[in-house]
């Protein structure tokens, strides 16, 4: 209605539900002036026609066809003097817009005379303002849909400040804001949003955990029941408790988003920043919201995962009004690499809503570059192992089989392929193909000729059932020395196992050892590091690596007169061994000289696959205080350690680590004698997402190496 155009275009405050209601359902405003206008409208129009010679037509209520949300009913109005700032000026501009008329004569009729103002023409700016206002109003539904989609498969946690400076009335506003979000979220434990919260002051007063799961109404009630505690602002304790909830209760494969709302600086800012960093490193995307004029800008930046996730409001009332817009901004500013642990410049993260895709996050200087990848057909991205894995081994919230009552789910990226589901919770064993010309119907969960599909199928057979897709390698029938690799497009190629190995379908590789009685080839190293003046891999594989503060220096007693010097903060990192299948036959040899002046209180790590903060599955270490060589291995169960004591220690020592035939043996030659020990451990060495490090550890029970290393050998056989 044109009568409210001025109010809309000149509104400077926050757009609230109350304001929108006053536009849609305006209150009547009877007055002496309006009553006079209604009584004399006809007479004023007659006088206007008589004086101007123009025709007079009653037009009623007009709706503009190009913007059907705008309407007007042109008529005469009563005022003193019409200025551009006057509401009638805006009203007439709206009427010109709606009717399409090129001009309007504004007429004032009083008890004294009829006054004709100068002619007014259309103002195009009004169209822009009104369209923007309409767009904002119409976008509310779209905004709510975006928020529900954005948080799908996300564990959202609210950290609420209940300190004394907040006040009880503002605490209630903060709770109401959270409830408004809960009303929009798709609260559901399998694939939807799960919400938790806590209230903190000088201590953690109340916690709403992720588990047991609370539905939407239970969450509303739980938030309403939160009590205002008053007290100090110990934000560090709140972040510590939040991380504990995520660690123990977050759903496998769920994205993690935490929102911290506070009105002031924490009691110990340095501890708060350190705890926030731990949360970020654990994969939690952190957003910080500051209220009022006593907030600490630096602390908000430290809490948030990035500057784009720092928000400030002048009051809790404004926060309550703008909470949906706030969360929309959070969703807009979250990128796939947020929450990704960047180790040695590279990290990997899952892509929300897609089990088959992952993003590679590469840090170049201070910029994170994102590269999106898709797993081969039939595999899911495994965020735990940082590799593409079989669906049965991966918990993905976007897996169609997780929905209750689903018996079959589509294979993303191929309209003919689908999987059977068991119990509605986990993906079945077999991948299936619809007949050529038909596609899988996700609604009816069957192959449907009415769904046109021309995609090829990895196993394009006349039957609808495909072979097991646990392994892309298949043994050649009758010949266990050869196997066939089947690629995504159906192309396949035959390959041979090494002469001393036979193909094992259960292991999906050449893992069965055999004795070769003729011209057995020599064992070739996978890595051969020889510090003889040039630091490089001399195995023939030319493996790339990262050098952090390792020097090649002249060394008395080194085989070639040179050795690699490690300073306690030095390391060599070989990416080749991340997500590597080690099997059950590994040999590691290290020749080294400990630093005479160092006195480490813990064993020094020489070689280990431990660059990603998780427990390594292969470790070679030396305990200087006890003159002891140490080796550790982990297969399917708990890790096992084998140690052997030296004979007093000389200048140069050599430790040989062998895992072979279900035995781990550790041999040590300290220059004064040899010693050895062994222990039984069945199975294959467990693969991890960690690279191989020399001279460095990220585990609390060991320390970095101080001293010289002459050479290192790693092989998947026994030299």
User: Which CATH first-tier class of the largest domain would you pick?
Assistant: Mainly Beta
Largest sheet: 8 strands, antiparallel
Structural class: alpha+beta
> What would you call the shape?
elongated
- Radius of gyration, taken over Cα atoms and rounded to an integer in Å: 36 Å
Total individual domains: 4
| CATH fold category name of the largest domain | Jelly Rolls
Portion of residues within helices: 10-25%
The total strand number stands at 43
Mean pLDDT: 80
The proportion of residues in beta strands is 25-35%
Distance between the termini: 89 Å
Tally of separate helices: 11
CATH architecture verdict of the largest domain:
Sandwich
Low-confidence stretches: 76-82, 113-138, 461-469
Q: Brief overview, please?
A:
The protein has 719 residues and is an alpha+beta fold. Helices cover 21% and strands 31% of the residues.
């Amino acid at each position: 209605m044109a009568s409210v155009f001025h109010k809309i275009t000149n509104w400077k405050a926050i757009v609230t539900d109350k304001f929108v209601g006053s536009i849609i359902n305006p209150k009547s405003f009877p007055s002496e002036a309006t009553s006079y206008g209604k009584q004399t409208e006809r007479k004023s129009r007659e006088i206007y026609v008589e004086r101007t010679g123009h025709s007079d037509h009653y037009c009623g209520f007009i709706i503009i066809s190009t913007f059907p949300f705008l309407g007007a009913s042109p008529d005469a109005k009563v005022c003193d003097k019409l200025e551009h700032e006057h509401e009638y000026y805006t009203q007439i501009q709206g009427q010109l817009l709606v009717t399409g008329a090129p001009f309007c004569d504004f007429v004032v009729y009083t008890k004294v005379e009829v006054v004709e103002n100068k002619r007014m023409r259309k103002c195009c700016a009004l169209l822009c303002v009104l369209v923007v206002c309409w767009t904002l109003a119409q976008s509310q539904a779209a905004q709510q849909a975006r928020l529900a989609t954005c948080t799908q498969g996300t564990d959202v946690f609210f950290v609420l400040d209940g300190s004394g400076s907040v006040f009880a009335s503002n605490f209630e506003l903060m709770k109401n804001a959270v409830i408004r979000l809960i009303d929009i979220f798709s609260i559901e434990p399998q694939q939807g949003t799960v919400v938790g919260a806590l209230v903190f002051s000088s201590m953690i007063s109340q916690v709403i955990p992720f588990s047991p799961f609370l539905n939407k109404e239970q969450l509303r009630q739980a938030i309403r029941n939160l009590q205002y505690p008053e007290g100090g602002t110990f934000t560090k304790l709140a972040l510590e408790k939040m991380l504990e909830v995520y660690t123990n209760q977050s759903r496998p494969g769920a994205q993690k988003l935490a929102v911290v709302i506070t009105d002031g600086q924490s009691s110990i800012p340095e501890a708060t920043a350190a705890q926030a960093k731990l949360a970020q490193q654990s994969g939690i995307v952190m957003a910080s919201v500051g209220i009022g004029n006593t907030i600490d800008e630096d602390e908000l930046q430290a809490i948030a995962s990035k500057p784009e996730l720092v928000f400030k409001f002048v009051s809790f009332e404004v926060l309550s009004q703008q909470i949906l817009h706030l969360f929309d901004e959070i969703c807009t500013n979250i990128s796939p690499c947020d929450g990704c642990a960047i180790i040695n410049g590279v990290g990997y993260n899952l892509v929300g809503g897609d089990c088959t895709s992952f993003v590679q996050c590469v840090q170049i200087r201070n910029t994170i570059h994102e590269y999106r990848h898709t797993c081969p057909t039939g595999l899911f991205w495994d965020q735990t192992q940082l590799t593409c894995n079989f669906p049965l081994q991966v918990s993905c919230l976007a897996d169609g089989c997780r929905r209750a009552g689903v018996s079959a789910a589509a294979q993303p990226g191929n309209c003919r392929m689908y999987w059977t589901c068991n119990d509605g919770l986990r993906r079945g064993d077999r991948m299936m193909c619809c007949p050529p010309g038909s596609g899988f119907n996700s609604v009816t969960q069957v192959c449907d000729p009415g769904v046109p599909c021309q995609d090829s199928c990895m196993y394009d057979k006349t039957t609808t059932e495909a072979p097991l897709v646990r392994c892309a390698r298949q043994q050649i029938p009758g010949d266990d020395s050869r196997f066939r690799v089947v690629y995504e497009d159906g192309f396949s190629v035959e390959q041979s196992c090494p002469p001393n190995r036979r193909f094992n379908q259960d292991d999906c590789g050449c893992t069965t050892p055999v004795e070769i009685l003729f011209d057995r080839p020599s064992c070739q190293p996978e890595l051969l590091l020889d510090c003889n003046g040039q630091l490089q891999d001399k195995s023939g594989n030319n493996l790339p690596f990262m050098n952090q503060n390792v020097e090649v220096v002249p060394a008395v007693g080194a085989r070639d007169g040179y050795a690699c010097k490690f300073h306690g903060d030095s390391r060599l990192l070989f990416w080749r061994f991340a997500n590597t299948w080690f099997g059950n036959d590994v040999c590691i040899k290290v020749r080294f000289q400990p630093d005479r002046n160092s006195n480490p209180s813990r064993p020094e790590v020489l070689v280990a696959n431990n660059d990603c903060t998780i427990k390594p599955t292969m470790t070679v270490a030396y305990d200087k205080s006890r003159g002891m060589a140490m080796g550790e291995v982990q297969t399917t169960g708990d890790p096992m350690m084998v140690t052997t004591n030296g004979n007093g220690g000389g200048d140069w020592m050599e430790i040989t680590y062998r895992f072979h035939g279900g035995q781990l043996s550790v041999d040590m030659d300290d220059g004064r004698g040899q010693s050895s020990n062994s222990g039984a451990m069945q199975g294959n060495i467990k693969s991890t997402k960690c690279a191989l490090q020399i001279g460095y550890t990220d585990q609390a029970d060991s320390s970095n190496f101080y001293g010289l290393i002459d050479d290192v050998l790693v092989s998947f056989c026994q030299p």
